[in-house]
Amino acid sequence: MNYQTKLKWAFISGITAAICWIVGDIYVAGFDVDPKNYPLFYITYSEKVDVGLATLMLEGSTNRLMFGALIAAMTATLFLPGVWLVYQYMLDRNTWYARGTYYLLIISVMLMPLGHAVFYFTGEIYKAIYNTDPVAHPYLLKIAAGFQKTMFITWGTAIITMLIAYLIFSIFIFAGKTNLPKWAGLISPLFLTIYQLPLKLILPPSELRGWIGAAAFNISYLIFFLLLWFCFKLPSEKETSQ
Predict the structure, then answer these.
(1) Dihedral in degrees, nearest 10, Cα atoms 156, 160, 162, 168
(2) How many structural domains is the chain composed of?
């Protein structure tokens, strides 16, 4: 398989992963919920839970949440050729900073599956609290607090790692250390995610707002790969150092 063919398959792999993760995000957390509709959490347990998280997935069926967790977690490895592709745009891939950024992106992919899948368990435990007798709530709230903490640690670490890596990659683009034009630093997944933030304020309450809120990071990944493929010349082996 020649180099250009590898690049094209890396694009296909990254795009496929982004689509699977968008679907997973929408299924597991793509809800636009008014917490006031759930007084048990909004009022009764407001000081014991994160009200927004506790109410987010109450309307999702078990099968829906499970599917959302699994389709993403089971396809995370498809992102690895995608981050290899990002590495190929470096002008000198032998430098410590190029390799360091590449390894940071690999680590972010490795952290993603658990950070995503734990949404399913968190959603299910809050559904259990909402649908059981109050006598069981103290114990279930304790379990929920552990699930929630695990979710924040795993998901937060994965997202922060990914965004730091793409901030560094954008800086490299601005500094002329890639074969992309300098303005392309503004279309890394970091900036594409930032551009979506106003939509949460502009869009009225709707399923669409919930979908965008849940899948913003992976929508950014999809747009990023598509822009690289269709708007910029593919790197060649001669243009970069092995």
Answers:
(1) 180
(2) 1
